């Protein structure tokens, strides 16, 4: 006479082990599929610390290029593995930035893109816009204050290079920074100014 076997006990892995497993997934799409498995997985992969760690280990896929100085998105095509996502982004997002006030006459030019955001500036770098072309939103940030620029010794012509930067380690998830380097060609000096969306201010951070 056979006796029924008791069901095998399930091994419960600690969250730290699951985190190590999930960090080894190849892409964010795989992570999203894993998070649908159960509420515990969803809690692990949605944790702010885990998300930042995953992003630091996995570079986002290349979906295309935006022509410098223009407002035109050039998606990657087959046989690139990201071609379907690039095509979907081209169709869903507005890279003409028609959601800006009077966009045809505004004079905004593309400068940099990072993490789904696009940085636009006036030709003379008078003002800056940080845009989300997928959700058709933008934030206008002020020019570098005159008194801050005046505190920086300059002897010749200057060259400004603004770029987007990730949020700081202790900043909110949706925050961003803009770093603007200023080169003094007279003394071959380079200065860096940083704008944080958290405190809405420019600060001078570096002078070389």
Q: Could you give the topology of this structure?
A:
Blueprint: H1 15-23, H2 28-35, H3 39-45, H4 48-57, E1 64-66, E2 73-75, H5 83-92, E3 109-114, E4 117-121, E5 128-132, E6 137-141, H6 146-150, E7 158-165, E8 177-184, E9 189-196, E10 201-207
Antiparallel strand pairs: 1-2, 3-4, 4-5, 5-6, 7-8, 8-9, 9-10
Helix pairs in contact: 2-3
Quickly describe the structure.
This protein is α+β, with helices and mostly antiparallel strands and 208 residues long.
Protein described:
The chain has 208 residues and is α+β, with helices and mostly antiparallel strands. The protein is built from 6 helices and 10 strands. Strands 3-4-5-6 form a 4-stranded antiparallel β-sheet, with no helix packed on it. The termini are far apart.
Q: What's the overall average pLDDT, rounded?
A: 81
Q: pLDDT under 50 segments (min length 5)?
A: none
**C-alpha end-to-end distance:** 86 Å
The rounded Rg comes to 23 Å
Main sheet? Answer: 4 strands, antiparallel
Give the neighbour order of strands across the main sheet. 3-4-5-6
Fraction of residues in H or I helices: 10-25%
Query: What's the total number of strands?
Result: 10
> Looking at the structure, what is the overall shape?
globular
Number of contiguous helices: 6
Helix/strand order, N-terminal first: HHHHEEHEEEEHEEEE
What percentage of the residues does DSSP assign to strands (E)? 25-35%
The chain-level structural class is alpha+beta
Features:
10 strands, 208 residues, alpha+beta
């Amino acid at each position: 006479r056979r006796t029924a076997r008791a069901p095998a006990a399930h091994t419960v892995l600690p969250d730290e082990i699951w985190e190590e497993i999930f960090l080894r997934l190849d892409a964010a799409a795989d992570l999203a599929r894993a998070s649908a498995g159960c509420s515990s997985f969803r809690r692990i992969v949605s944790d702010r610390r885990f998300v930042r760690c995953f992003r630091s280990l996995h570079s986002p896929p290349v979906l295309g290029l935006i022509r410098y100085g223009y407002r035109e998105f050039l998606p990657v095509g087959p046989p690139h593995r990201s071609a379907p996502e690039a095509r979907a982004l081209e169709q869903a997002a507005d890279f003409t930035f028609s959601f800006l006030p009077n966009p045809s006459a505004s004079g905004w030019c593309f400068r940099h893109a990072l993490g789904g955001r696009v940085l636009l500036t006036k030709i003379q770098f008078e003002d800056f816009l940080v845009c989300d072309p997928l959700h058709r939103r933008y934030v206008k940030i002020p020019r570098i204050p005159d008194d801050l620029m005046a505190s920086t010794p300059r002897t010749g012509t200057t060259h400004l290079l603004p770029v987007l930067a990730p949020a700081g380690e202790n900043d909110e998830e949706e925050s961003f920074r803009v770093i603007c380097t200023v080169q003094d060609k007279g003394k071959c000096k380079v200065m860096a100014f940083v704008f944080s969306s958290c405190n809405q201010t420019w600060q001078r951070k570096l002078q070389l």
